[in-house]
Amino acid sequence: MLNFHSLNNLTFTMKTSKDYTTEFRHYGAITVPAGTKVTHQTALGIDENYHFVNEFEWVKVKYPDFSNTLIMDLDSYGLNIPKEYIDYP
Description:
This protein is an alpha+beta fold. The chain has one domain. The chain contains 3 helices and 8 strands. The chain has a two-stranded antiparallel sheet with strand order 1-8. A two-stranded antiparallel ribbon has the order 2-3. The protein is globular and about 35 Å long. Residues about 1-10 have low confidence and may be disordered.
C-alpha cells in the first residue's frame, strides 16, 4: 500500500516522455517539453487518472512574454497530460 511519502515521491518522478502540444485557454498552442514533472495531485486529492504539469521553469524560457500569467493559469487551472505522454518510474 502506498503511503503519502511514496505518493509524493511518485509525484516528483513522473515526467513527460515526449513533447506535448495542446491548446490551452486563450494562449493558443503551447508545448510542454519532454522531461517536465507531472503529478496526480488534484484539488480533491490524488487521482491516478490525471497527470497535471507540476514544474514551470520551461515556461519562462519558451514563453517569456507572458510567462507570469501562463504559470499562474497552469498552476490554478491545471494542464492534464495524456497518459501516452507520461514516463512512469
